[in-house]
Amino acid sequence: MDDLLADFLTETHEGLTALDSALVRLERTPDDHPTLSEVFRLVHTIKGTCGFLGLPRLEKVAHAAENVLGRYRDGALQVTPAGITTILSALDRVKLIVAGLEATGREPAGDDAALIADLDAASEGRGIAVPDAAEAPASPAAEPAAEAVPEGGAVAAQTIRVSVDVLEDLMMLVSELVLTRNQLLQLARANQADAFAVPLQRLSHITSDLQEGVMKTRMQPIGNAWAKLPRLVRDLAHELGKKIDLDMRGANTELDRQVLELIRDPLTHMVRNSADHGLEGPADRRAAGKPETGRILLNAYHEGGHIIIEIGDDGRGLPIERIRGKALANGLATEAELAQMNEREILRFIFAPGFSTAQQVTSVSGRGVGMDVVKTNIEKIGGTVELVSKEGRGATFTIKIPLTLAIVSALIVEAGGERFALPQIGVVELVRVAAGGAVQDGAPRIEHIKDAPVLRLRDRLLPLVSLAGLLRLPATPGEAGFVAVMQVGGQAFGIILDRVFDTEEIVVKPVAPILRHVTMFSGNTILGDGSVIMILDPNGIARATGVGADAAGAEQRRGPPSGSSLRSDSRTSLLLFRAGDATPKAVPLGLVARLEDIPAERIEMSGATPVVQYRGALMPLIPVSSGWMRPEGTARQAVLVFTENGCAMGLMVDEILDVLDERLTIQPGSGRPGFIGSAVVAGSVTELIDTAFWLAQGGEDWFRAARPAAAAASRPQLLLVEDSAFFRHLVVPSLAAAGFDVTAVDSAAAALRMREEGARFDAVVSDIEMPEMDGIAFARALRAGGAWAEVPLIALSSRAEPADVARGRDAGFTDYVAKYDREALMQSLADCLAAPLVG
Question: What whole-number distance in Å separates Cα of residue 10 and Cα of residue 161?
């Protein structure tokens, strides 16, 4: 195939992709003259180039379609759905001929007479003719500016076409450069080669910038994978007799070309499913009180180092009882197991092979061969898929995938004397466990249920997998280890590890053919010291062991419900660190979003405040130590990152020490700003920081749209109702240090259930703005009668205008306190309980 024909085929593919979307858009808005001009220009370009290259069959079809579009453009005919259908048929024939050209270099034989006759008939009057051009309204298409869309132009002059093979080779060279950079840095650290420190640091920065630049050449808008969907939805709507509106958002969100190709088919299948199974017909939608036109939403956006894609509809939702019955009939679960499953677990059965709830098989779907393939393909690229459904209201699938498969961030870990790379995309947290499973230094212990290891983590039993045992490696008894808590689909499980070394950007190499049957590995990589190690696949580990997303989770369901309540006298996960003096300091781990190790050169000054560019914004850095000075040279700064409601702040510390679970007995402090008291943690006196104090130093209004909560007999018993986990962790230690036994729950409904179960409290503190039942409705429910009708009730809210306070008091609140005014809350509690408080 000569270069001229190859270039023509490339341009024609681009034009055909654009034409599908543009014609569907034109059918919806027939008066969209710029779109009509765009369609005419694209078809005209294809026709003109065919004549130049001597492709008579392709030229005749394109010419006939151009005639119809020319009549539309000139105003002689009005755009109709029938006419658009005929033109789309012509484009399908063009695609067929182009495919033959690609395969053989010649036009395939075929008879287009019937199609050309339909196009000629359409150009001669199929549609509504405009009787007189003088009576036709002025058309923007007649203006030169509307039609004069340059085929080249300034934008085109700034772009060139590069073979994908060239980009792949360039990416491979950059990958090797990253490996060499890692090796040099490790050698320099090992040999303390100070003379090379500065040039190596410069080389590291240049390599990172080059890597980022090459990655950008591989990035494509996800809209490229959506380009054929408007035509697909349009054809399905006609075939199924439905009215469907496709809403695509975030089409400019970019991701790696390789990932884009791998998700194209799963996205197409899910959109077809939404159109066929999800959306009702017009009559059913009218009967349900919905608009006749159903809506399918495609939304894509970046989140961290991942792409989030949402595919949702406002249709009938998934039938829970039918899924339950089908799972029972297919032997996927017993009646007893199904009775213990929540709605989310039952919904995941639709990802089982051969599973379908369709009452009849259609030409579109219903054969039970779709969603399991979608899930498998997404997991192959390290992604996850989640499902939320409400019967009668619709369903939404949420896909989380990595930006790229070429270079990923991973933890280097060890099990059985061997090192492995664990991609960070699935790691929720790392937990240090005590030696031999014993309780030691506050570390949690590994328990066993019918010989299956589990970890009791924040009142939840987490199923565990021993990596050494799974890979038949020698165990290392008697040593403290770690558990990597993984999230796979809707479930979590832990991987038992011997050691965790560091985080490193690794270059992903494909698994050798001899190892492809081992599902626990997704690839291999080369470390800085030249060692070749395997990359673990969390999804493969979950499938191989029966835990995680595809497991029934019986052991996990035996444990108490996770995270909905919190007690001030229960064990708390603490992050220990040093800052300033030698006394260890601690903060509840649940408050910390991330631990960062920031290079000194990234720290800048905004006035007198240190800041760092963090995830597209400037994040203030607040030093715990008053004598903090900016590190010099190649030094790094440890930072605890706090995030909530769009706010972010970094707390600068000297050293991260450990993560421990401890039952806290807080002794009030001496009034030193920034600390709420001291406690004995791991045998040492440890200061507990007042997180709210440090957040306020960051300058953000953290409490404007935030929410608090709490639970705990001689000390006053206090119930805190707060839907935000962040503010539950923030408020409970402060109230505990002030002399309360605190119980925190995440909803008004949970509080009312505690009332029915006979729980007793001296006072209740409740957020006002909560989902489902807000604080006002909660107050009225309490004051309507029952055991808590006379209990003091204090409102916490960012809305503290006189009208808001009056409304709260009318509903039954004893007092109304602005968030988060700690002193005002303590005074209000003292007044309500008429008892002196500690601190």
Answer: 10
pLDDT at 695: 81
* Tokens describing residue 195: 């003379």
Q: What is the DSSP letter of 382?
A: T
What's the per-residue H, E or C state across 493-544? EEEEECEEEEEEEEECECCCHHHCCCCCEEEEEECCCCCEEEEECHHHHHHH
356 vs 149: which has the higher pLDDT: 356
> Which pLDDT belongs to residue 23?
87
Q: For 19-62, what is each residue's pLDDT tens digit?
A: 888 888 888 888 888 888 888 888 888 887 777 778 888 888 88
Q: How far apart are CA 409 and CA 535, in angstroms?
A: 11
Which residue intervals of 54-106 are DSSP H helices?
Answer: 56-74, 81-104
Which of 3.40.50.150, 2.40.50.180, 3.40.630.30, 3.30.420.10 is the CATH number of 565-697?
Answer: 2.40.50.180
Of how many residues is the chain composed? 839
- One of 2.170.150.40, 3.40.50.720, 3.30.565.10, 3.40.50.2000 is the CATH number of 224-402, namely 3.30.565.10
> Residue 529 has which token pair?
């010291």
* Collapsed DSSP state (helix, strand, coil) of residue 677: strand
Q: How many CB atoms lie within 10 A of CB 108?
A: 13
Distance of CA 629 to CAs 459, 581, 610, Å? 41, 15, 10
Q: What whole-number distance in Å separates Cα of residue 412 and Cα of residue 419?
A: 7
Cα(656)–Cα(663) distance, integer angstroms = 20
Tokens 């021993």, residue located = 466
Query: Rounded to an integer, what is the distance from CA 124 to the centroid of its chain?
Result: 52
Class for the domain spanning 3-156: mainly alpha
CATH of segment(s) 717-833: 3.40.50.2300
Q: Stretch 639-654: mean pLDDT, rounded?
A: 81
Q: How far apart are CA 690 and CA 576, in angstroms?
A: 14
HSE-CB at 200 with a 13 A cutoff on CA atoms is: 18
Task: Answer whether 398's CB lies under 8 Å from 306's CB.
Answer: no
What average pLDDT is seen over the chain? 77
Phi/psi at 180 (5° precision): -65, -40
Distances (CA, A) of 461 to 341, 376, 481, 568: 16, 27, 18, 20
Whether 226 contacts 268, CB under 8 Å: no
Tokens linked to 86 = 């005929």
Q: How far is CA 458 from CA 426, 567, 573, in A?
A: 19, 11, 8
DSSP string, 295-330: EEEEEEEEETTEEEEEEEESS----HHHHHHHHHHT
Most confident residue range from 241-255, 428-442, 448-462, 500-514: 241-255
Q: Regarding beta strands 418-423 and 394-402, do their DSSP bridges make them parallel or antiparallel, or are they unpaired?
A: unpaired
Q: Is the dihedral of CA 742, 747, 752, 756 positive or negative?
A: negative
What is the rounded distance in angstroms from the CA atom of residue 682 to the CA atom of residue 684? 6
Are 200 and 184 in contact by the 8 Å Cβ rule? The answer is yes
pLDDT at 294: 92
Q: Which two tokens stand for residue 649?
A: 């702040």
Q: Which CATH architecture has domain 409-558?
A: Beta Barrel (2.40)
Which has the closest alpha carbon to 474: 443, 498, 499?
498
pTM of the model: 0.47
**Residue pLDDT, tens place only, 79-122:** 888 888 988 888 889 888 888 888 888 888 888 889 889 888 88
Q: Is the predicted pLDDT of residue 592 greater than 50, yes or no?
A: yes
Helix (H, G, I), strand (E, B) or coil at 561: coil
Chain-centroid distance, C-alpha 229: 22
pLDDT band at 295 (very low <50, low <70, confident <90, very high): very high
> Count of CB atoms within 10 A of residue 367's CB?
11
Query: Residue 277 has what DSSP assignment?
Result: I
> Whole-angstrom Cα distance, residue 262 to residue 256?
10
10 Å CB burial of residue 74 (0-12, 13-18, 19+) is: middle
